[in-house]
Amino acid sequence: MTEGLREKKMRVARRAMEEAAVGIAYEEGVHAVTVDRICEVAMVSRSTFFNYFPSLEHAIFGSALVYDPVLTERILSAHRDDLVIAASRIVMETVRGQGDDELLRKRFALFAREPGTTTTVSWAAGTSRAGLQDVIENWLDAHPASARLAHANHATEARMIVNFSITLGDEVMRLVGEDGGDFPFDPAVFRTVRERMRALSIPAR
């Protein structure tokens, strides 16, 4: 279907505001981004901004993640022994795999440079988080042998896996940011953080 003039103008305007938001965050940090600054750079009004984005965070980090079934099946199958790592990698690859242009490259770089902020407003965003829980719950339903909790249903296990994966992803991003690594990250980084999480989860005797 051919894109109409109105649709094209809307797409161009949305892109301009996203580029302004991500550009400011990339150059000056997420804390420096304001609606007024985005509007100034993109040459739009505040009312226009809120016609496109429900919040400032949506302009910086994008819409809720949509998880590709082929990608999720590949990652979950490859990491069926540790679904916390699988969940973290699903989010990272979904964000990075949405395209290969400058906007997405900068947006993904923000995860490594300011992981605490991006975890709070993006990875843990309600819709993205609930969607990932559904993916993992459905996978556990199809692969019950991979479930680890004997006295909890798959929905509970999926929710806990996602909660752990947010912490894991945050710490992986911190380590990668300190070392200057690039995506895809060395699997050893994930294992290092998982070992630290295990050590802290065992009560001292």
From TrEMBL:
InterPro entries: Homeodomain-like_sf (IPR009057), HTH_TetR (IPR001647). The keyword Glycosyltransferase does not apply. Residues 11-71 form the HTH tetR-type domain. One of its GO terms (molecular function) is DNA binding. Residues 34-53 bind DNA. It comes from the Bacteria. It holds the Pfam family TetR_N. Keywords: DNA-binding. This is HTH tetR-type domain-containing protein.
